[in-house]
Write a structure and sequence with these properties.
Blueprint (H helix, E strand, L loop, with lengths): L3 E3 L22 E3 L11 E10 L3 E5 L7 H12 L5 E5 L7 E5 L12 E5 L4 E5 L2 H14 L16 E9 L5 E7 L7 H12 L5 E5 L1 E2 L2 E2 L8 H4 L3 E2 L20 E2 L4 H13 L3 E8 L4 H6 L21 E2 L4 E2 L12 H15 L4 E5 L6 H4 L2 H10 L4 H18 L3 E5 L12 E4 L4 H8 L4 E3 L2 H4 L20 H5 L13 E8 L7 H8 L2 H10 L7 H18 L11 E6 L9 E6 L6 E5 L24 E8 L2 E2 L4 E4 H7 L12
Parallel strand pairs: 4-5, 4-6, 6-8, 10-11, 10-23, 11-16, 16-19, 19-20, 20-21, 21-22, 22-23
Antiparallel strand pairs: 1-2, 3-9, 7-8, 7-9, 12-13, 14-15, 17-18, 24-25, 26-27, 27-28, 27-29
Helix pairs in contact: 3-5, 7-10
The structure holds acetamide (ACM).
Length: about 650
């Protein structure tokens, strides 16, 4: 990829002052941005030539409330890094950038589509609605040099965009990211930052996971203990899930919650960026923070001693089998007025038409021993614990319905029967979604196998530990519509960021980028436009933008991948053979077995490797064009042997 070309016949002033008029000066290097739009647009025609931002920019935009924040952002983007004087006019056919809302809607564009025409002197963005203009503007930013994302003035740039004609609209209306603000708390300002980052790639839904065992994060005025007790736990750092039990009386000073005013502010902030916020109150499982606040919601003796979980082990997997009862008890009549009170306030605060009611991973081992549950089963004719949960879900659905909202839940809400207009969020693979769609329910696809953003994205020996891996290339292969279902029932999809192991915003960013670029493209772009190699190139170009935005991202796609297996053709019965690869094509891998750090003067990987009998470490690094590009991975041979199902060799150190 050629990033820079030398301008030939048309020369530009480095000071930008006369950027629109050709000058007779020596040629200056001009950054030309190869087109690297993510998500890929529906159609893009390169028209040849380029447009250059002049030092005085006028924007034509009608006086519309729904464009106000977009215009503030546009003016900032165009003036701050460039130093240009930017003004807005209501009508100005000669404006540098024209934002036009169609008087007669154009069917193909729908609610979110746009036309973007970049010609030598003007940019025109046309849409049926403000959202379309907003997305057209995001595309325009990506056509300009990456320095347009600089938070400070960049001198000596020529702000060129290639001339193009784009028509673009999303494949799906539901393009979501879920942010778990319960396991670790993220402030209102941090949630706004999350929104700012997601909209650049045309996401339109933020699912906030507001309640869980580790914290209740939304003020419910009629139930004050949910936040005075339920929002706080002991502050611990390390590998969440393995922490020591909190000592009696240990300060519970980690946490926080959003007040009603905070929520209103977030909803407004999101709305101005064309994002709906989907609130989740996860019940009947994952409810320890609620029970620690109001123990009378349990059916289990001793619940009054329960505390908000601080990351200690409290569940056995697979199962789940709970070591303490973290469920709201379906047989406890106090639970339903409680939920009524919660959903009353939630429904008032969030204008989105759906409330997420969780339903996942509900441990039923305490229900199995509960007299109250046994009596409920007899009274209601319920035969299984799944039917007990289904009884609960149907009552929840009625409560949520009484507030004028529809329910969405994780795919477990299907088990034991489900109310007809419930939306199902399929997370345990796509099978829950297929089953739900076959039953006529609408579905949002968010399968662990493709979109779980808490999973490691590179090798476990170099990534912060999580129990599973999801590489960028796999995320990019996400297809939300399984062959066997009616595509109309698939509303879209979303990536989910659970935050047990995510303690801060930098790591949040590392986990969501670049996999959320892949998911964005799967949800916005036509299926036939997807192309892994081209996406990898565009992702790398977007890394340059993220660097300027000071957004952290993972470069795992450049790392070596180890594929060890038992070598059945080997001389010894326990021979290991190691194949190496990379997600991105065109990289060279160099390796060592002698514990020294390889570079491009070391052996280059060409065929599967058989480690020498006494080598304890295989070190591999990736290069491109003679320069290192991925991380060096130091892989213990015994780790490879374990992965291949071979016995480890006790003499190999370190193990
Ligand atoms: C989930 O990941 N438990 C929905």
């Amino acid at each position: 990829m050629k990033k820079f070309i030398i301008a030939g016949s048309i020369l530009f002033s480095g000071l930008m002052g006369l950027a629109q008029q050709p000058l007779r000066q020596p040629a200056a290097p001009v950054a030309v941005t190869p087109i690297s739009l993510i998500p890929a647009p529906v159609s893009l025609r390169p028209d040849g030539g380029h447009f250059t931002l002049p030092p005085v920019i006028t924007i034509e935009a009608r006086d519309r409330q729904d464009l106000a924040a977009t215009l503030v952002d546009l003016v900032r983007h165009l003036s701050l890094p460039t130093g240009a004087a930017v003004s807005i006019a209501k009508v100005d056919p000669g404006a540098t950038i024209r934002l036009i809302v169609n008087k007669t809607p154009e069917a193909v564009l729908g609610e979110e589509g746009y036309h973007l025409t970049v010609s030598p002197r003007h940019v025109v963005i046309q849409a049926n609605r403000a959202a379309g203009l907003f997305y057209g503007i995001q595309s325009l930013y990506q056509l300009l040099p990456k320095e347009i994302e600089s938070p400070v003035r960049v001198h000596g740039m020529v702000w060129r965009a290639p001339c193009v004609t784009i028509t673009d609209y999303p494949r799906f209306g539901w393009r979501g990211l879920m942010f778990d603000v319960s396991r670790h708390f993220f402030t209102k300002a941090e949630v706004k930052q999350f929104i700012d980052e997601m909209v650049k790639y045309k996401y339109n839904l933020l699912h906030l996971h507001l309640t869980d065992d580790e914290g209740w994060r939304i003020e419910i005025k009629s139930l004050p203990k949910l936040t005075s007790v339920g929002a706080w736990r002991v502050d611990k750092v390390g590998t969440f899930g393995t922490f020591s039990a909190p000592a009696p009386g240990e300060p519970r000073n980690y946490g926080g919650f959003y007040t009603h005013d905070d929520i209103r502010e977030l909803v407004q902030y999101a709305k101005e960026r064309f994002v709906n916020i989907l609130p989740e109150v996860d019940v009947p499982g994952h409810s320890l923070a609620a029970i620690a606040s109001y123990p009378e919601l349990s059916c289990t003796a001793g619940a009054e001693n329960y505390q908000v979980r601080s990351g200690e082990k409290f569940m056995n997997w697979p199962g789940p089998v709970a070591l303490i009862d973290n469920t709201l008890c379906p047989a406890n009549e106090k639970v339903y007025p409680f939920l009524d009170a919660v959903f009353t306030e939630v429904a008032q605060l969030f204008p989105f038409g759906y409330i997420h009611v969780g339903g996942d991973e509900c441990a039923k081992n305490f229900w199995e021993k509960s007299d109250a549950i046994r009596q409920l089963m007899q009274k209601e004719g319920l035969k299984t614990m799944e039917e007990v949960q289904s009884y609960f879900e149907k009552r929840v659905e009625k409560i949520v319905g009484s507030k004028g909202k529809k329910v969405i839940g994780w795919d477990e809400i299907l088990e034991g029967g489900l109310a007809p207009n419930a939306l199902v969020m399929s997370w345990r693979g796509v099978k829950g979604g297929i089953q739900a769609a076959k039953m006529g329910h609408e579905v949002v696809m968010s399968p662990t196998t493709f979109v779980y953003l808490d999973y490691m994205q590179g090798d476990a020996v170099v990534e912060p530990p999580v129990y599973a891996t999801l590489r960028l290339k796999t995320a990019y292969s996400f297809e939300p519509v399984p062959d066997s279902v009616d595509a109309k029932l698939i509303r879209g999809g979303q990536g989910n960021l659970w935050t047990e192991q995510v303690y801060n915003m930098r790591h949040m960013e590392y986990m969501i980028w670049p996999r959320s670029l892949a998911i964005a493209e799967c949800l916005w772009s036509p299926k036939e436009k997807k192309d892994w190699n081209d996406f990898a190139r565009r992702t790398e170009a977007n890394f340059g933008r993220m660097d300027l935005e000071q957004v952290k991202y993972a470069r795992s796609m450049f790392d070596p991948i180890f594929m060890p297996k038992k070598d059945s053709s080997g001389a010894a019965a326990d021979s290991l053979i190691v194949q190496l690869s990379t997600e991105v094509e065109g990289l060279d891998l160099y390796y060592s077995f002698d514990n020294s750090n390889p570079d491009n003067f070391y052996p280059k990987y060409a065929a599967p490797l058989i480690p020498p009998r006494d080598a304890s470490m295989l070190k591999v690094i990736s290069y491109r064009g003679g320069r290192p590009i991925g991380r060096q991975i130091d892989m213990p041979i015994n780790e490879l042997r374990r992965r291949a199902g071979l016995s480890t060799r006790p003499w190999l150190k370190p193990d």
